[in-house]
Amino acid sequence: MHPNPLFRSEDRAGMAALVDTIGFGMIFAQTPTGPRVVHTPLVMSGEGRVRFHVSRANALAGHLDGASALAVINGPDGYISPRWYADRDTVPTWDYVALELEGPVRPLGAEELEDFLHTLIARSEARLDGEPWLAEETSAANWTRLLRGIVGFEMAVKEWRPTYKLSQKNSEADRARIADGLIAAGNRALAEAMAAVPA
């Protein structure tokens, strides 16, 4: 993560909310044939735990039980142009929000995996307009068949390493110009992240 402490936070509730808001990330772990990564939906589960699932056929699936793993969640990011500064005698940079979570992983039991999937579906459907799709619309036979193809896991987070690099080193006037530039460039999400983090 970025070494500058200005871009760090100790707000665990905010970090957990970031995981659930983004809802997707990468899980990295070591295997006998080298490091591997899986891209997966993520759901916070109680204090300091994050749940996810992988395809049973994934190269990482058989190596996660008991492993120490790293989860990476990426928030909004974007190029910051020197044209947005009062003094253009500088260089471009990249602003971003990212979170690393590290900890041991255990497999989910059958009921825990079902609970995780129903939570994930309900959360994701609630973000869409219109009448939600319900898991009960899948036949029991199809649900069971598809469920056999995945494995669920839970990471007990021991290390939280956030980076909120959002032009905090710049003046308030420059930050306002940067936000305006980002919005004009179509990156409202990064501009909103900037507004949420004080300089």
TrEMBL record:
<dbReference type="InterPro" id="IPR012349">
    <property type="entry name" value="Split_barrel_FMN-bd"/>
</dbReference>
<protein>
    <submittedName>
        <fullName>FMN-binding negative transcriptional regulator</fullName>
    </submittedName>
</protein>
<dbReference type="InterPro" id="IPR007396">
    <property type="entry name" value="TR_PAI2-type"/>
</dbReference>
<dbReference type="Pfam" id="PF04299">
    <property type="entry name" value="FMN_bind_2"/>
</dbReference>
